[in-house]
Amino acid sequence: MKTTGIICEYNPIHNGHLRQIEYAKEHGADVIVCVMSGNFTQRGEFAIADKYTRAKAAIKAGADVIFELPFPFCSSSAEFFASAGVRIADKLSIVDYLAFGSESGDISLLSDVAEIMSSEEYILQLESLTTDKKYQSLGYPELCEAAVNTLYGTKLNNFFTPNNILAIEYLKALKKEKSRILPYTVKRESAIHDGDINENSHIQSASAIRAKISEADFSALDYTPNIAKETFLNASKEGKMPSDMSKLDTAIISSLRLNSPRNTVDIHDAAGGLYNRLCTQSTKVTSISSLMSETETKKYTKARIRRAILNTYFGVTSSDVRMLPVYTQVLAMDTVGMSLLKRIKKATDFPVITKPSSFKDYTADVIRQATLSHKADSIFGLTLKSPYQGDYPLTFTPYVKK
Asked: Of 235, 239, 284, 332, which cross-links 55 as Cys (Cβ 3.0–4.6 Å)?
């Protein structure tokens, strides 16, 4: 039995994601195991729907079991997002393959670049360019491209696109874990600009779908798998989607105003003066969106600012993220997934939590990580039209498709 893993956000799951699941099955996958982001995303955003709704939709669309990539790992940069996802997939001890999308679609080229970017020479070159005034206006993708081309004489142009970068980080993480999992990539069929719906394509970006849903235009759900569409519509009717981060404007701005600029601060993604800039700008604004506008520079992208805001609010340190996950939690499954859990329990001692409140039965590291994730989830609940109580993350039952 071949088990294929997919590290994902499914925010929300759409037809492109469905095509990836179908591709894996067409190429021999008997079981689809997903490691899915919790209530927060890699861009530092609140997911459009809670993790339970998104996991249920994914199971209906063809996945067999959904494990959680918990906060703060789910809202970290590509390096830590990929490393955390791979860590969980590897520790499950039953995943044979890892499938991921990329703009390149060339696993050989991606592997070669990943090997280059894992070298000490590349790391030193990247650090050198980062401090060079000539390169200060470049974003991270452009810096990566410059470092690779300068050091190795390659001619990669516009290669470091979002999904290629993530693919490279998956490959680096697999090597670092010394994992037996074999990787392969699925070429993305189309590239849709964020916020745009192209009615001539049955595949739209998650960003475009989210933008429409946030405007209460649920026709965008036509680009999600038909079998999952009902799940999202019901969630909307029940006030479980879309989330609205602006409901936390006062809480987050006031939290930053209560803090003061410091010479040193250990908040993940807020180094290099960003923490102080957030504290200072918070006195001039009254909303998160305006805080981001006032804080954004060539050095500080919106994604990094959002992550820094979340990490400052929840007190996430660099050591919290670098430790990587020491547990995961089951969000949803079908009958195949249920039988797979039995195999996992025999194959590994890695904590796989099926009853959220039982996290206190594990080690101090699990308790610390799960407590932070549960607190973040309880705050996420306040962004919904029908907010859930703070202890809801400890009381839910994983969805089971019979």
From this structure: 332
Predicted confidence (pLDDT) at residue 137 exceeds the cutoff of 80: no
For residue 351, report the phi and psi dihedrals to the nearest 5 degrees: -60, 120
187 forms beta bridges with: 102
Instruction: Show the tokens assigned to 375.
Output: 């607190």
Burial class (CB within 10 angstroms; exposed 0-12, middle 13-18, buried 19+) of 301: middle
Does residue 298 contact residue 139 with C-beta atoms inside 8 Å?
Answer: yes
* pLDDT over 70 at 360, yes or no: yes
139 phi and psi angles, rounded to 5 deg: -80, 175
pLDDT in tens, 141-169: 888 999 999 888 878 888 999 999 999 99
- Rounded alpha-carbon distances, angstroms, from residue 305 to 84, 270, 299, 308: 21, 8, 10, 5
204 neighbors 11 (Cβ within 8 angstroms): no
Furthest-apart CA atoms within the chain: distance in Å: 59
- From first CA to last CA, the distance across the chain in angstroms is 21
Length of the chain (residues): 402
Strand partners, 33: 5, 65
Q: Are 22 and 15 in contact (CB under 8 A)?
A: no
Q: Tell me the two tokens of residue 356.
A: 């959220």
What's the pLDDT tens digit per position in 371-389? 999 999 999 999 999 999 9
pLDDT digits (tens, 9 = 90+) for 260-307: 888 778 999 998 899 999 999 999 999 999 999 999 987 788 999 999
Rounded CA separation 166/144 (Å): 13
- Among left, alpha and beta (phi > 0; psi -120 to 50; other), residue 195 is left
Buried b (16+ CB within 10 A) or exposed e, 321-333: beebbbbbbbbbb
CA 76 to chain centre: 7
In the chain, count of helices (H) and strands (E)? 16, 8
222: its two tokens: 């036509």
pTM for the complete prediction?
0.95
Q: Can you tell me the distance from the alpha carbon of 381 to that of 402, in angstroms, rounded to the nearest whole number?
A: 28
- Say which amino acid occupies 139: G
Over residues 295-331, the pLDDT tens digits come to 998 778 899 999 999 999 999 999 999 999 999 999 9
Assign 3-class secondary structure to 61-93: CCCCEEEEECCCHHHCCHHHHHHHHHHHHHHCC
